[in-house]
Design a protein that fits this description.
By secondary structure, the protein is mainly β. It is built from no helices and 20 strands. The protein folds into 2 domains: 154 residues, Galactose-binding domain-like (Jelly Rolls); 119 residues. The radius of gyration is 22 Å and the shape is elongated.
């Protein structure tokens, strides 16, 4: 059984132990030498907002991964004396470094076209309304229409990942009607923003009967794999455990068609009204890769 220490061969974020003595690949924070979990340096984080690491780490979603971070609060906030807090995890990207939003992923309302869809059409027809909201008061970002053309080289896997419907083309629906009278065929009115009607753009690929369709639903922006954590005044470890594969999710595993990830943190999220935000430290920001769970011992 292998034990992995320090950098390199199995996917550790470069400089995740911060022993380079600078903030390379983690420029949202500053190198800190007065305290560390181990070694001579850690990373000090302040402020709020969304912070993303600079390094795109290549991943193979058929293998097993485990992410681990050490953290502690350095100074509490003022005036309410809060500990540091934030969401911890990673951000997913496809092979072209496009961010993968949940609205690019299938698994909701998976169905197929019952009639061919052509450029200029105002409606599409689908075989099932299961998983499709019929309440047009629901916010527009719960009503994307996602297409998975069989001939597309990247988006052709049924109900997995596509940018046709969200990303390359933004397509919504603003009405849904049972045109069969018995629930076997439904008509969706196409919309540019969830309210105004539109006609189908030319997406460059044919959309015949049987083309897979999903409903695009927004959710957690990133993969909060290590959760929403309040960091104590002593070092604590946060660990995902082993995971593998792809799905529609905001935790683990990876999202469909993930080929790269970056480190992600929402520092001091939800702490409002503070004159000074808490400062906290990170150390040993690690990403392990293995051919099987348990094949690596985490130090």
């Amino acid at each position: 059984m292998a034990i992995i220490y320090g950098r390199p061969t199995l996917g550790l974020f470069t400089n995740g132990d911060f022993e380079s003595g600078d903030n390379s690949n983690f420029t949202f924070g500053t190198s800190y030498s007065a305290e560390s979990y181990r070694g001579s340096y850690s990373l000090m984080v302040t402020g709020g907002g969304t912070v993303i690491g600079n390094q795109y780490v290549s991943v193979d979603t058929t293998k097993y991964y485990r992410m681990s971070v050490r953290a502690k609060t350095l100074t509490n906030s003022s005036p309410n004396n809060y500990l540091g807090i934030g969401y911890l995890g990673f951000s997913c990207y496809d092979q072209f470094y496009n961010f993968i939003d949940l609205r690019n992923c299938g698994d909701n309302g998976n169905t197929t076209l019952t009639r061919a869809c052509n450029p200029g059409d105002s409606y599409i027809y689908i075989a099932s309304a299961s998983g499709w909201t019929q309440n047009m008061s629901d916010l527009y970002y719960y009503r994307n229409v996602l297409f998975f053309p069989a001939t597309h080289p990247y988006y052709g896997s049924p109900w997995k990942y596509t940018r046709i419907g969200y990303g390359d083309y933004n397509i919504y629906y603003n009405s849904i009607t049972d045109v069969s009278g018995n629930g076997t065929e439904w008509r969706l009115g196409l919309s540019s923003d969830g309210t105004n009607s539109m006609t189908m753009p030319n997406v460059g690929y044919s959309l015949p009967i049987g083309t897979p369709i999903s409903r695009g639903i927004a959710g957690g922006t990133y993969n909060y794999a290590l959760g929403y954590q309040e960091y104590p005044a002593t070092w604590a470890q946060y660990d995902t455990g082993w995971f593998t594969g792809e799905s529609y999710n905001s935790s683990v595993p990876f999202r469909y068609k993930t080929r790269y990830i970056t480190f992600m943190n929402l520092p001091n999220y939800g702490r409002t009204g503070e004159t000074t935000t808490a400062k906290y430290l990170y150390d040993d920001v690690l990403l392990y890769q293995s051919s099987a769970p348990g094949a690596i011992t985490i130090p």
